[in-house]
Write a structure and sequence with these properties.
This protein is an alpha/beta fold and 296 residues long. Helices cover 34% and strands 17% of the residues. Strand 3 (51-54), helix 2 and strand 4 form a beta-alpha-beta unit. Helix 2 (65-71) crosses helix 11 (281-292). The longest helix is centred in the middle third of the chain and has 15 residues, at 96-110.
Length: 296
């Protein structure tokens, strides 16, 4: 099936009524984070990036495409290790600590003066680790539907999807499973997401582009909850954006976050599930703009 990584942005714009004068300036850039190991990113715009976006587990940098188009700002969207076009992490695709160290190397090279870092799910936890590891690189931190209180039970719908077959006989089979687990999303959006997040093998079958992880094979690492201590040490403006249709964040998580960071802003998005950037990208864009660029 033909696939042009940079040829689908017009679809994002059309779905949400965004102006589209032509293909945006987007390039794929690799940063060597350790000898022979690279992390890949999408660099939007030609000016110094103002924002860093980090996706969730089993996603990739293209999950932010609509948000990036709506923001219209220079930014960097990073493929986490073991996802998208990035090489695997030294401790696996779910290692928050090593992800944070890799993010630090990427941000220091591509976006050292960004106004903020926005991390969703695994990307949010990894961004907490980034902030703890290299606080000078993070001037504001936005967590999208995640806190260190996440556990396997709260994330059960995610694992129900990820625990699927290792491969699919056809694109239509892969699309059908994706639609089944995302009933509120446009089929056109899901189709585009699969093209960005899966590859076709020589025998015609399809496999996900990300490194597989299963709930029965370690699942979420025990270290997840340990990052509450790092939350307490953060000294920059923070915000939590929470999906109100369904979320891995419960009220106890919000209470704990506010106990440790009393000034953290908490915003809920109606009609959005865990992947707010996919369910309600324009609402998320407005929230990010108001928080990170209030004077612009």
């Amino acid at each position: 099936m033909p696939y042009d990584e940079f040829g689908l942005f017009s679809e994002n714009a059309a779905e949400y009524g965004l102006p589209f004068a032509g293909p945006p300036a987007v390039s794929r850039v690799e940063v060597e984070v350790s000898p022979g190991r690279h992390v890949s990113s999408l660099v939007w715009g030609t000016s110094p990036p103002e924002l860093v976006l980090v996706h969730g587990g089993a996603q990739n940098a293209h999950t932010w495409d609509t948000v990036a188009l709506a923001l219209g700002r220079p930014l960097v969207a990073i493929d986490l290790p073991g996802h998208g076009h990035s090489d695997g992490g030294p401790e696996g695709s779910l290692s928050i600590g090593s992800n944070g160290e890799d993010l630090a190397r990427v941000v220091s090279e591509l976006a050292p003066h960004a106004r903020g870092v926005v991390g969703m799910s695994l990307g949010g936890l990894s961004s907490i680790a980034l902030t703890a590891h290299a606080p000078e690189l993070v001037r504001s931190l936005v967590l999208v539907d995640v806190t260190p209180g996440v556990n396997q039970e709260k994330a059960a719908p995610i694992f129900a999807f990820v625990d699927g077959p290792d491969s699919f006989p056809s694109f239509d089979d892969l699309l059908a499973r994706t639609v089944e687990h995302n009933p509120t999303r446009l089929v056109s959006s899901l189709r585009r997401g699969i093209l960005h997040n899966a590859v076709q093998r020589e025998d015609g079958s399809w496999v996900w582009r990300y490194a597989r992880f299963r709930s029965g094979e370690g699942g979420l690492r025990p270290e997840v909850g340990d990052w509450w201590t790092a939350i307490s040490g953060i000294r920059v403006p923070m915000m939590l954006v929470r999906g109100l249709a369904w979320s891995v964040v419960d009220d106890a998580d919000v209470d704990e976050l506010l106990r440790r960071q009393p000034t953290c802003a908490v915003v809920g998005v109606e009609g959005a599930g865990h992947s707010i950037q996919g369910d309600r990208p324009l609402e998320l864009t407005g929230i990010l703009s108001d928080f990170l660029f209030p004077q612009d």
